[in-house]
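How a chain folds remains the central question behind the approach discussed here. No coordinates are needed to read the tokens, only the vocabulary itself. For completeness, the protein is quoted in full, as a sequence line and a line of structure tokens:
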Amino acid sequence: MKPLWPAPRVRHSLNATVEVPGSKSMTNRALLLAALGERPISVKKPLRARDTDLMARALYALGTDINDVGDDWTVSPARLQAPATVDVGLAGTVMRFVPPVASLADGPVRFDGDPRARERPLGPLLGALRGLGAQIDDAGRGLLPITIHGRGSLRGGAVTIDASSSSQFVSALLLAGARFDKGLELRHVGGPLPSLPHIAMSVAMVRAAGVGVDDSTPELWRVDPGPIRAGDVTVEPDLSNAAPFLAAAVVAGGRVTIPGWPADTTQPGAALPELLTALGGSVRHDESGLTVTGTGTVHGIDADLHEVGELTPVLAAICALGDRPSTLSGIGHLRGHETDRLAALADELSGLGAEVSQTDDGLRIRPKPLHSGVFRTYADHRMAQAGAVLGLVTDGVEVEDIATTGKTLPDFVGMWAGLLGDTVLGAGH
């Protein structure tokens, strides 16, 4: 078993301001567009965590120079060199966004990653790339490891894809589509598309890089061929990583403020104010940031989280502390995330005393008095965050492998201690 972290329990209400680092989603999109661009750019306030380090290393392997300038990065266009090897770790953005770039290299590029990465869906993207002219060796499995045999360019044109298991399949092609000889005409066919805000983020960032994108028809995107003229990017705070800190105010009572909360954003975390209000919090957004105030009384909710699935683990933890049952729906695709998040949440919340069952597309959570126990994380950073939230108001919760939060938030433990300040009860509770 991996090391156990005694989740600190609070003894009185919170009063904290927490600065969260930059968005992983924006950082990795900015890095990739810079690598495909025409001139060096600056990525300001990037997230520095395992997922973004893996993206930087992947692009470096393909000939991109990324250098520190204070807290920022300067990124030069990729030489698209090969042969190369890419370690995706467990980062969905790396395993899905970089193969279209590798198809533009002149030579073989091999991809592999953590054991769980070899189970995450990749087949629909590989099928679409083949339809656009790519040569790929995946042993017919549609899973890692794979080798992209780049030939210096990709034909591009019209292709269909079933992206119902991951919006990243669409984003991957949108981000590189302008560099395909014929551009891209991408149509989704299949079940409902998850995480639409992430696709909207990709469209907005590609347009900001001077590329024509037509998304006026639902589930159809046209990307004009031509140069990518990415400019300097300032990365927004990661609103999804703000979720456990804001949740703390709801479940423990008190006030938590996240500075720099954008007035307008494509991040899925933009849904947090409405969701946390329904769960019992009070939300204010002003020049100081987004502030959530709670009383410690939590309400149950019925919520469709299809577009904001990555918020599910923290929201499920809050629901396990509610005053009535909750139903979280629209999230069947989470079975293919860093772990099977529906099975993991059902097992771990039930293990602490809640009554949780899976549905075809979500979870039913019936709150019961919680008790001490080990909360396993399955190498999933969002699971670790959920365990920390539960530990705020439950004696004796021990979170397995809290270090997995380093995937997107390297100093989570230090930030959590800063959130609680002198309100921590201590390891023995």
